[in-house]
Specification:
Layout: H1 5-17, H2 20-27, H3 31-45, E1 50-53, E2 56-59, H4 61-88, E3 93-98, H5 105-114, E4 119-124, H6 132-135, E5 141-145, E6 153-161, E7 163-168, E8 179-180, H7 197-202, H8 204-207, H9 220-228, E9 234-237, H10 238-243, E10 249-255, E11 260-267, H11 273-287
Helix pairs in contact: 1-2, 1-3, 1-4, 5-11
Length: 298
């Protein structure tokens, strides 16, 4: 049986929304058409992927397994199409993803000296998509901030850097030279608590069960606007805080919070010599520029 990728895309939309109407709107198709396509997929698979009852739409065990496998399969298909189209242009191309605050110029300069005929492109990424762009082919290699889901990836550590807390300029702690994790216990964190587990251990709003829901924040600029307005605090890598300097937000070192680890990552199955050459250039430049720091643990 050949798997129909279009049906898989429809399935993933419904699985993520758990609502046929919303999924149909997202896909820009009529809901009856979507329902027919899902039934056709279930016929192809010989298994029901959704359970429909008064509670709504739920994934069956087969559906959960299909979702787990379908997402990387669709990403691989997108990556294949992108790489074929790029190759058809005839000019070797390497697209490098990078996180805010990380300067990749030293690595790209060395790489272009060694590979002068390669078209080097840069893609700014975020916490939400730094792995996704590798899996779907938008980037060939990425300079990422750990932790990430490393399944299917080759990861090479580069360096560690301290993390700092961002406070509004008028904050009660703003005049200090540094703070402790305990000092931040009364504060509202504008991030997923899992991103700063040290804070989670002492946070009063977690202990007292009064932490409000935090909407998804995708850009550093959004976080800093909220910090400046007094809505809460956030913890950033030092290079990111330095890059986004502004007068109404103060970065302070935090005793008791571990460093951020920066690494290279690419799809493990890729064997491109361009990826290998850039990885070597990045290891020599970005890693050596912080040679005084201890190497990241694997």
């Amino acid at each position: 049986m050949d798997v129909d990728l279009r049906k898989l895309r429809y399935f993933v939309a419904v699985a993520e929304e758990l609502h046929f109407g919303r999924a149909a709107e997202r896909l820009h198709i009529a809901q009856p058409v979507l329902s027919r396509q899902i039934r056709s997929l279930e016929d192809d698979l010989g298994a029901e992927v959704f359970a429909r009852d008064r509670r709504g739409t739920l994934l069956t065990p087969a559906g959960k397994q299909l979702l787990e496998d379908a997402v990387p399969l669709l990403a691989s298909a997108e990556a294949l199409l992108r790489r074929v189209k790029t190759a058809a242009r005839g000019t070797p191309t390497l697209t490098i993803g990078f996180m805010p605050g990380i300067t990749v110029t030293p690595a790209t300069a060395v790489f272009t000296t060694r590979r002068p005929g390669v078209d080097v492109r840069l893609l700014r990424t975020s916490w939400d998509n730094q792995v996704e762009v590798l899996l779907d082919g938008r980037a060939d290699i990425g300079v990422v901030r750990l932790p990430i889901d490393q399944r299917g990836l080759q990861v090479r550590p580069l360096f560690r850097e301290p993390r700092v807390v961002m406070l509004p300029a008028g904050h009660r702690l703003a005049g200090r030279s540094s703070v402790t994790v305990g000092d931040l216990a009364p504060e509202h964190l504008l991030q997923d608590p899992d991103a700063v587990p040290e804070w989670r251990d002492v946070a009063l709003e977690m202990r007292e069960g009064r932490r409000p829901e935090v909407p998804a924040i995708h850009q550093v600029e959004e976080k800093l606007e909220l910090v400046a307005s007094g809505a809460g605090i956030c913890v950033l890598p030092l290079s990111t805080a330095t890059f986004y300097t502004r007068p109404d937000v103060i970065p302070l070192p935090v005793d008791g919070i571990g460093p951020n680890e920066v690494a290279l990552a690419w799809v493990a199955s890729r064997r491109s010599p361009l990826i290998h050459d850039f990885a070597e250039a990045a290891t020599q430049t970005l890693g050596e520029s912080r040679a005084g720091d201890p190497p990241p643990e694997r």
